[in-house]
Amino acid sequence: MLRAAVFTVGAVALAALAAGPALAQKQTVVIYTAIENEQITDYMKAANKTLPNLDVRMKRLSTGDISAVFMAEKDNMQADVIWGVAATNMIVFKNAGLLEAYAPRGLERAQPLFRDKADPPSWVGIDIYMSAFCFNTEIAKKHALPAPASWADLSKPVYKGHVVMPNPASSGTGYLSVASILQRMGEPDGWKYLDALNQNIAEYTKSGSKPCKDAAAGERAIGVSFEYVALEMKKKGAPVEMVLPKEGSGYEMEANALTKKGAKNPAARQFLDWAISDEAMGLYAKYFAAVGVAGFPVPEGLPKDISKVVYPNDFDWSAKNRDRILAEWQKRYAK
Question: Out of 50, 139, 142, 275, which residue is the most buried by the measure of CB atoms under 10 Å away?
Fold first, then answer.
């Protein structure tokens, strides 16, 4: 029995030694992201197959929250990679000295709009998302609500208590909508409009996707959200229509970056190389009308040329004025 026991222990030890090199090949990379959970699941199936040597540790929060966590950790940085966080926030991170410039493999394929202007860039964009209204036609019939066609419509008294919108402090979707309105109308008129819109708001949500999901569930008539969620809810059978406001949808760009901590981690660069590969771009293009590399088909139900439906976003202005705008928004509308 003793000899058998010794053999068993020895066999286990030998097995562990044999497995050691394989285990050692796994390189840990810590990724902070604001990408929607169902998209992460889809993307990571491919990433795990293509990058079997990586042990990916993912932290997912809404844009405002993940950005606040990352900024708070600046003196004890945990993230190696920022993946799919708003370009506006990336500019804030860059200006705070938290990012390491890096040109991922294949960068030359990226469209000029989808990258930091510096060479090498501090961030690279992967897709564009735009503000959209989710309009529940059944709730509308119940309350005799007309279908909104514009931002101006949403401020009409008929919609009082029927609109839900993301909080711009926690949601990238919320901030892109507010920033776009202020850029398009100018700040004096923009804040007057937001004052009027606020009279109709039933709730400001933490998440950018929740307003549309609430509308789809029949909890609200109108959810100000973004186009991916509107299409997904409609595909799932919810009685919602997607409305792109006729003045122009606000838009934002999901982007990637290497952090100062990640600069010391080869696995971080490896992931960022994959994250702009054709494989990754093909996955992003399942959900968004415009991705960082041209030539991918547009999902059914989305405009073929988004330049005709969006209002141009000055990302530098949005980043520079973000804290001031959020402070003013909180003072006026925080509930």
Answer: 275
Residue 286, Cβ density class (10 Å: 0-12 exposed, 13-18 middle, ≥19 buried): middle
Q: How far apart are the first and last CA of the chain?
A: 72
Among candidates 118, 130, 111, 129, which has minimal Cα distance to 276?
A: 111
As a whole number of angstroms, the distance between CA 81 and CA 102 comes to 11
Domains and CATH numbers, the chain: 27-128+252-307 (3.40.190.10), 130-250+316-333 (3.40.190.10)
Tens-place pLDDT, residues 106-132: 999 999 999 999 999 999 999 999 999
| Separation in Å, CA 127 to CA 93, 172, 253, 311 | 19, 14, 6, 16
Instruction: Please report where in the chains the tokens 């030890």 appear, as a residue.
Output: 13
Q: Is 323 helix (H, G, I), strand (E, B) or coil?
A: helix
Q: Residues of 268-285 as b/e, b for ≥16 C-beta within 10 angstroms?
A: bbbbbbbbbbeebbebbb
Name 11's Cβ contacts closer than 8 Å, sequence gap at least 6. none
Q: Letter for the amino acid at 47?
A: A
Q: What is the pLDDT of residues 203-237, one digit of tens each?
A: 999 999 999 999 999 999 999 999 999 999 999 99
9, two tokens: 């222990």
For residues 302 and 289, the answer to whether their CB atoms sit within 8 Å is yes
What whole-number distance in Å separates Cα of residue 325 and Cα of residue 328?
5
pLDDT digits (tens, 9 = 90+) for 164-197: 999 999 999 999 999 999 999 999 999 999 999 9
Q: Which residues on neighbouring strands pair with residue 266, listed in sequence order? A: none
Q: Is 199 helix (H, G, I), strand (E, B) or coil?
A: coil
The first and second tokens of residue 5, run together, are: 């026991």
Which residues, in sequence order, are CB contacts of 198 under 8 Å at separation 6+?
332, 333
Phi/psi for 209 (5° steps) reads: -90, -20
